[in-house]
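Diguanylate cyclase: structure, please.
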Amino acid sequence: MSIYSKKDKALTREGIIGLGESSIRKNYYPELQDKISTLEKMKTRNQALMMAIPDILLVSDSNHHFTPFATSKAEEAALVLSFLREPAIADKLKQGVDEVILNRKPEIINFTVVSSVQKRHFEARFQLTELNEVLIIIRDMTQRTVLEEKLRDMAERDSSTNLYNRRKFEDAMLAYEDMNSVSISLIVFDIDGLKNINDTIGHLEGDRVIKTVADKINENFNDAVLISRIGGNEFAVIYEGISKSVIQSKCDAFNLKLDLINQNLAYEVSVSFGISHSNGMPINGAQLYQFADHNLYNHKLLKEGSSKSTLVKTLMKALEAKDYVTEGHTDRMSELAKKLGLTFGLEQHRMDQLTLLTKFHDLGKVGIPDNILKKPGPLTPDEWEIMKTHTAIGQRIASASPELTAISDLIYKHHEKWDGTGYPLGLKGKEIPLECRILSLVDSYDAMTNDRPYRKALTIKAAMSEIKRCSGTQFDPDMVKIFCEYIESGTV
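Here you go.
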């Protein structure tokens, strides 16, 4: 017979511990009372612990029913509700719950809440319980995240200019090598003559120049992916998916801003730059930088105030002294060539190469005997063959000079003709580099319209008539048409 009667079936406190009964169960009363007391203490302790924990605690079942876990904080309850009302965050929490239930192991996700007041960063940890529920611990990571970002920023920034540093730049270029679908443009800048400013006016003023240039670069190229200071007086800018013409226009705008700065200075701040593009090809960061740096070097060669331009000036004086070029000839050609180069959309580095080509296309004549070079009458066939070697001689000299390597191939091809009757390769039409086609036209025009030892200058009308006659044979016909319009309208 059961010791329980029907009236004892109700599970009451008294029924459990046997109060008022003559049953043997009375012997358990002290132990049960202790257990209850212990459980109540644990409950109180746990509630106090949970109240002390700054984290948000949620419980979810497999159906994504989220319940705050023992919270009495109004602020915390409101934050929980805001999470669940935000679809993107709610979806992340649901995804975390599903992952834990499926994989039976803890998960961690991070999310950000942006309000009109601030941006807050959170970390959510998911832990499966024995009841097949998921305990979610959401911790505010804003302070830690902001500190980490600040430390990372300090490690990646140049303290003087607040631009990114070389390490950041190199990491970015390295990362691009793993991206096949990205086309980037790189612009490299160098402040000309900064050493002279440091030596004469002082390093403090030199630092001001660096900061001023950095600010102008940052202002003018503020839509770039990355702007870095990569050396003492060198900067780099990276763009993604921008056309060459837009890049060039931005560089032109930057030059105009420098001109405005120079109006208020006792000295001139000059900045050279070089551009290179990946053109949709797989990116080789080192090679792309090398191209940009080489184009920068060519740009620097043509700067009047640049120490690099000393080589150009020295060689030009030597050529003029030997009568291999007529004084003023290259300057006049450069102006005409630049006009045509801009019309045909040449980028800055190709414009620089074109300018160098106008100065040094006849560099190889230093290897031609004077009795042939200065002969007043027609050359014999043998003498003409020797004269034609000046393109190859010029190519070899330019190739051996780091400053002129970029134009060595153009020097070699500058006597090619549109109809293929030129030398040394017999190139035809657009096989001839555009720079060489421009040079051929402006060189002939300048030669005809200026006095030479063996003849007087032709009139502009006579020179234009001769150029039109040679259109399609010696000269690019499209270029002749544009050039004639310039001359006849008086714009050059």
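Notes: The chain has four domains: 1-52, 53-156, 159-307, 308-492.
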